[in-house]
From TrEMBL:
<dbReference type="InterPro" id="IPR016039">
    <property type="entry name" value="Thiolase-like"/>
</dbReference>
<dbReference type="InterPro" id="IPR014030">
    <property type="entry name" value="Ketoacyl_synth_N"/>
</dbReference>
<dbReference type="InterPro" id="IPR014031">
    <property type="entry name" value="Ketoacyl_synth_C"/>
</dbReference>
<comment type="similarity">
    <text>Belongs to the thiolase-like superfamily. Beta-ketoacyl-ACP synthases family.</text>
</comment>
<keyword id="KW-0614">Plasmid</keyword>
<dbReference type="Pfam" id="PF02801">
    <property type="entry name" value="Ketoacyl-synt_C"/>
</dbReference>
<keyword id="KW-0808">Transferase</keyword>
<dbReference type="Pfam" id="PF00109">
    <property type="entry name" value="ketoacyl-synt"/>
</dbReference>
<protein>
    <submittedName>
        <fullName>Beta-ketoacyl-[acyl-carrier-protein] synthase family protein</fullName>
    </submittedName>
</protein>
<feature type="domain" description="Ketosynthase family 3 (KS3)">
    <location>
        <begin position="3"/>
        <end position="421"/>
    </location>
</feature>
<dbReference type="InterPro" id="IPR020841">
    <property type="entry name" value="PKS_Beta-ketoAc_synthase_dom"/>
</dbReference>
<dbReference type="InterPro" id="IPR000794">
    <property type="entry name" value="Beta-ketoacyl_synthase"/>
</dbReference>
Amino acid sequence: MQRRSVVVTGVGVVCPLGSTVGELWQGLLAGRSGIAPLTRFDPARFHSRLAGQVDDAAVTLPTGPFQFEFKRMSAFVRYALFAADRAVEDSGLAARTPSDGSTQQPRRDLPPGGAVFLGVAMGGLPSIEAGVLKQEQQGVRKTSPFLIPSLIPSMAASAIALHHGIADEQVTIAGACASGCQAVGQAMRAIRSGARTWALAGGAESVTTPITYSGFQAMKALSRYDDPASTPRPFDRRRDGMVVGEAAAVFLLEDSEHAEARGAQVYGELTGYATNSGCDDITGISTRHVTRCMSSALADAAVAPDTIDCVFAQASGMVQADAAELAAVRDLASGTGRQPVVTSIKGHTGYTFAANGPMNLAAALMALRHQTVSPTLKYEQTDPEFADIDIAREPRKAELRRCLINAFGFGGINASLIVSRAQPRTAVTPSSEGDSLGFRVDALR
C-alpha cells in the first residue's frame, strides 16, 4: 500500500522567546536570549539561578469546555492547550460556527478523522512538589482536588482533545526528552498509513521547580555561569551544562491530499522518522546509537546523508552529550564529501525537555520557509575536537531542502525527524505574522 504524504499546515508555539512561531523565529535570527534570572522560586541555594521561562501573561486559554478546570492545571497542560489552539487557528482547518451560548466566542469545529499525539517527560512535577509540601505543612484538608488531574502527564493531550471535541484517539508519549519528537513521528505514521487524516502533535514541559534543580545539580548537569548572556553554550569549548527551559510546540499535521484539496498553506513535509534504543550510560548519549537513529530516519525518507542541508541538534551545552552528537553527525556524513551545517536553539530557549524536538521542528520549518539557518547563540570558542564541523555562528542564507531534527532522552531513547521544504504556490493570503509566502505540497524525494 502506498503511504500518504504528511505535511505541516499549522504551528503553535509558546516559549521564552514569545508566544508565536514568528516571535520564536525573530528571536532566533536577532540572537535574543530567553535566559534570565529565575523568578518562580528563590534559587539562592542552587548553583544554577537561571531559567528560560515562559511569560504566563501571554498564555491566554481559549474559552470552551472545561475552561474552569484547565485554568487550574499544571503549566505544561496550559502551555500545550495554548499551543494547540494556535496551531488549529494557524491551519485554518476548523470551520467557525456561531456560538451556542456556552462560550463567548464562535466555536471552531474540526473535521472527523483526527487525533492528538503529545509528548511529556516530567509533566506535573511542580504540582507534585507543591502538593506534598502543602500537605505536610498545612494538613491533608488543604490538598487541592485538582492535584491528581494536574500532575497526570496525559492531561495535556486530554485537554486538547476535550477542548477541540476530538473524539478519536489521544496518545501521550513519555519517552523522556525525546517524547515530543516521538509524538510527532507517531502522528506522522498514523497519517501515512491512512488511519488518520490529520493530527495535533508536539510536546510540552514546564518543570521550573526546586526538585528539578536539586536533581540535575546532583547529576552535575546544570551550568554554573551566572550571566544569562554566557550560558548555555551549545558546542562551545567552555560549555559546562544546561539551563532549564519551559515551552510547548504543537503542530497540525495533515494528509497532503486533504491539505491540497482545501487550499491550505503548508510549512513543510515530514518525510522521515526513526526512533531507537541504545546508550552507553543511562543518562548519556551514545554516538553509535544516535548515528544509527539518524541513518534510519534517512532510510525512512529514502534520501542519502548528503541531501541533508541542516541539522537542528539536541545540543544543550552538556560537555559529553554535545560531543557525542557532533561525532554522530560527522559519522553520518563520512564519505559523502558534504557536511551539513549544524545549529542549536538551546542558547536562546534553554533545555525544554519533552518540547526539545518540537521546538527544533518549529525552528526548522521557519528555516526552510525563509531559506536561512538560525545561529547557535553563545557559541564563540571552537572545540578543537570538532573544528571540522560547520556550526552556524550567525544567521546564514542558504539553499535548504531538508533538515534533520534530533531529540534524545535518558534511558537511551533516541529520535530523529526529516522535514523537507514545500514549494511556493500562488494566490495565498499573507499570514497574520506578516509572512507573505504560501506553500503547496511538493515532496522532495
